[in-house]
Amino acid sequence: MKNVILTILFSVGVLILWGCIALIICFVDILVPFWYFNYRSIIVIFLFIILNFAVMIIFKKKLNKIWKYPLCLIISSFVLSVLIFVAVCGGYKYYGTFSPDKWRNNVDCRYMMIDNMQKKYKIVGMKKQEVIDLLGKPQNILENPIRYEYLAGYSIIDPIIYEIYFNEDTVSNTNISEH
Fold first, then answer.
1. Which residue(s) pair with 160 in the sheet?
2. Considering the entire predicted model, what is its pTM?
3. What is the pLDDT of residues 29-74, one digit of tens each?
4. What fold is seen in the domain 100-178?
């Protein structure tokens, strides 16, 4: 009986660890500075949790030793953590490098490209047409002050907007904001 209680407590602890991993992935800007993988990460985590329980139910007779249940949870938690880390790092490396094609085809990940774009191209000083040639047609063109707005992705609540300010026909400043 004591082993069963310890196993249940240990399994609950591992599931709490899963929850912490999900929170870190979904709500910490420092670790995951983009929210493109938010829903995908949550789906992957829940699929692994379901997979854990499915494996335990399917192989219940083979896993007759009580210590093997939490071992399965620990192993699958480790595998999940590694897979998420690789996916997030790989995604950030890919989407963090600017190209006009990536910019046009990956609206949700644009804000990861902005730093790289500003290093490659001198945005400040460009003409309006050069900006359009590089980034495509803006989502909004506003007056007072004259600026182009590009949807650059989504935070938890608001969209992330890349704003390009003009002094007459030349870029004078850029800004990233959430509206």
1. 153, 178
2. 0.57
3. 444 444 444 555 566 666 666 766 666 666 666 556 655 666 666 6
4. Beta-lactamase Inhibitory Protein; Chain:B, domain 1 (3.30.1450)
